[in-house]
Amino acid sequence: MTCDEAEVLIHALIDGELDAGHARDVEAHVAGCARCAARFSAWRDLRDAMPVRGLRHAAPASLRSRIERAVPSPAKTDRRALLKGFVAGGALSALAATGAGVVILRQDRDDIVAGEAISAHLRSLQADHLTDVLSTNQHTVKPWFNGRIDLAPPVVDLAAQGFTLIGGRLDFIDGKPVAAIVYRRRVHVINLFAAQGLAFAWRTPKAQAVQGFNLMRWSDGGLDLLAVSDLNRDELEEFVSRFSEATRKSRQG
Amino acid sequence: MVPDFDRGDDAAQRFRAAALPYLDDVYTLARYLLRDSDDADDAVQECYLRAFRHFATFRGGAIKPWLLAILRNVCRAEYARRSASPVVAGADDDWAEQASGGLWSDPSSPEAETLRRFDAAAVQALIARLPEPYRETLVLREINDLSYREIADVIGAPVGTVMSRLARARALLRAAWLAEEEEP
C-alpha cells in the first residue's frame, strides 16, 4: 500500500468503515510508516477532541409542536380534512400506485405490530385480563370466538408437549381485532395472536427479541400468527413448532 | 370497506413514530447548513411536511438518512434564494482558496501535536466556518453519525467523493483548530 492510498483509508479505518482484511492492510502500513502513523494519530486525536454531544442542537419545543400540529395525530378529531390535503399529494399517489413504497414500509409496520403485540401481552398479564374464556379445553375455547371475530383461530391442545392451554380472549393489534389464545409453560404465559392482514407472509417463523420479550411471527393457513412470551427463545421456538405441527394435523383431519 | 382517512391515519401514526425521533438530528444538520436558527426552524418544518407527503415513497432501510436528504434539498433551495442577495456570496470561496493554497497542512510530521480541547461552542464555530460541501460531509459523519454509504445517499455522490471530502474537511478543521490555538 502506498502512502497516497493510505491517506484516505486511514480515515475509513478510524471511522470503522473498513472490513477486517482492509483494516489489517492499513494497520500494517501505518505500523511501518512514520508519516502515516503521524497522520493516524492526528486524525484520531481530532476525533477524540470533538465534543460530539455538545455539537448537537436540540430542536426548540416550539418547532416540535409546530410539526406535531402539522402531522395529524390520531387523537385529534379534526384530522380528516387535514389528511385529505396530505394524502392528495400527486407524487405520493403515483408512486404508491406502483407499489414501490409498500414492501419497504413493511419494516416500519412490522415494528409497530411488534410493539403493539408486546403491549397487548403486557396488558393481558394485568389482573383479570388474561382470558375472556377460561378453559383448558380446545373445544370450548375455539367456538367461543365464533361471532366475535371474523376468523376461525387455530386452537390446539399442547398439554402433552408441556404447554397448557389456559383460554382465549379478543384483543386488538394495529387497529385490527385479533384472537388471542393463551398458553402457559411453568410460570410463563404465551400469548398467541391470530389475525388476518397483519401481513407477515413468512412461512418460516421469524424470531425477534423486543423489550426483553421473545416474539415469533409467521403466516400459516391464511392467518398471520404472532407468539409473545417472556419464555426463553428456545422454548418459544419449541412452542411454535409444536403448535404448527398440531394445527397441520388438525387441518388434515 | 376501509375508509380512506383510516389509511391516512395509519400512515400519519407510522410517520410520527418513525420520523419524529430524528427531529434533533434533522435540526442539527439544518443549523450547520444554514447557520441561522430561524432559517433552520423553517427548513426543518418544511422537511417534515415534505417527508410526510412522500412517506409512501420511502424505500425503507434507515429513515434518518432519508430525512436528512430531504432536509438537504430544502436547504439548497434556501441557498439558491440567498445567493440572489449578494451579501453572503464569497465567504466560502475565500476558504476554498485558502484550502487549495496549502494553508492547511498535512499532519504527517512525526511531532504532530495533540489538539487543545475546546468547548463545544468554540468547535461549533470552527465547523460553521468550513466551506459548504466539507461542512456538510463532516457534520453528517461526526455529528449525525451516518456511515459513508448513507452520506453518499444523502448528498447524491459516490462513496469515493464522500471519503475525499471527509479527508479534506478534517484537514481544514484541524488547520482552523491549530490557528485558533495560536489566537491570544
Characterise the protein shown here.
The complex is a heterodimer of chains A (253) and B (184). With 253 residues, chain A is of the alpha+beta class. Chain A folds into 3 domains: 3-55, Arc Repressor Mutant, subunit A; 61-96, no CATH class; 103-252, Phosphorylase Kinase, domain 1. Chain A has 10 helices and 7 strands. Chain A has a 7-stranded antiparallel β-sheet, with helices on both faces. Chain A is elongated and about 80 Å long. Residues 74-107 of chain A have low confidence and may be disordered. Chain B is mostly helical and 184 residues long. Chain B folds into 2 domains: 4-83, RNA polymerase sigma factor, region 2, helix turn helix motif (Rna Polymerase Sigma Factor, Chain: A, Orthogonal Bundle); 91-182, Winged helix-like DNA-binding domain superfamily/Winged helix DNA-binding domain (Arc Repressor Mutant, subunit A, Orthogonal Bundle), CATH 1.10.10.10. Chain B has 9 helices and no strands. Chain B has helices spanning 4-19, 23-34, 37-53, 63-83, 91-100, 120-128, 132-143, 148-155, 159-182. The N and C termini of chain B lie far apart (73 Å). The model of chain B is unreliable at 1-7 and 87-104 (pLDDT under 50). Chains A and B meet through helix 1, helix 3, helix 4, helix 5 and helix 6 of A and helix 1, helix 2, helix 3, helix 6 and helix 7 of B.
